[in-house]
Write a structure and sequence with these properties.
- By secondary structure, this protein is α/β, with parallel strands linked by helices.
- It has two domains: 109 residues, P-loop containing nucleotide triphosphate hydrolases (Rossmann fold); 261 residues, no CATH class.
- The protein is 38% helix and 18% strand.
- The protein has 15 helices and 14 strands.
- The strands form three sheets. The protein has a six-stranded mixed β-sheet, with helices on both faces. Strands 2-3-4-1-5 form a five-stranded parallel β-sheet. A three-stranded antiparallel β-sheet has the order 6-8-7.
- A hairpin with a 2-residue loop joins strand 13 and strand 14.
- Helix 6 packs across helix 12, helix 10 crosses helix 11 and helix 12 packs antiparallel against helix 13.
- It is globular and about 70 Å long.
Amino acid sequence: MELTGRYFQDPGCSFFLFGPRGTGKSTWLKTNLRNSLRVDLLHPESYRMFAARPERLSELIDGNPDYTTIIIDEIQKIPDLLGMVHQLIESRKDLRFVLTGSSARKLKRSEANLLAGRALYRTMHPFMASELGEKFDFHEALNTGLLPLIVAAPDSAQALDAYSMLYLNEEVKMEGLVRNVGDFTRFLEAISFSNGSVLNTSEVARDCQVSRKTVENYISILDDLLLSFQLPVFTKKAKRILIAHNKFYFFDTGVYRSLRPRGQLDRAEEIDGIALETLVIQHLRAWIAYSNNKHDVFFWRTKSGNEVDFVVYGDSGIYAIEVKNAALIRTKDLSGLKAFREDYPQAHCIFLYRGKEKLVVNNVRCIPCEDFLAELCPNHPLPGLKK
């Protein structure tokens, strides 16, 4: 597959670049920062040398004076290197560091805070549809996701299975994140049923036969490995009683599909609906990450049952987005958006569906989901809205 341009932009200073494996961090760095000194901590020899003597980083830089940009891949493998990076940033104003990572777990217990204000935090995400352009296949994206590693694979389904095993073996087993890999494997299957749903850790614990505390730890592992995230409830100036728990999502719809078991009692349209919702939220997260304007994404659900899938709130306003895996627009499908607009009259309401026409129904912009994703670009308004 030919190289696809990414929306991610070099901030021009020292920065962390986080993202799950396979999102294209290394490819972007090789393409855009070619004249750099690179340290790959996935390489066994490099890992051994720098783990034993972090100060060797200073010696390596002194021995290569032509390089002013230093890339350290998978910095979470040796958190002690952050102390050395901090010293070099302070003493060598001519240097800048690019620190990539696919896990934030170890860094939470490291000297990462020492770099606050000295290195920006940036994230890399799966492809956006508009990055792929004409190569974007909506139906394929719904089934296998948009991880560059998977999109480029000859057999995407097989690559997805291998991807899941990569994380299970390399990140979970080798890093000793869990004591019982069997329990964690059952947890992955159980938590897949919670994708796109409000988290109920007690229910997940019953399904995989472990304690609730263990499930909470496992969820934090997934979050730290950047494989999942949680959406909080939108509570700003709330006028109704809202639920308190977060919604859970895997970071890519293909990863969700690969972990979600299917049986005779499973309805295909239910799984497809969650996959569609996941595809939309992963695009919104990428749009936010790559845009200059600051936004956050939430969901909204009242105790009485009114719900909006996503609420984007930020510099440019409030956007309420409902996603339905249906080709027709029914009045009851717009009820959550109607309730939200009663509380937030300034909100822009968007309904994404599987139909073909762009419509305005009851002052709600109804947009085919495929069109919305294809037109979504960083630093541009959400599709369907005027500038």
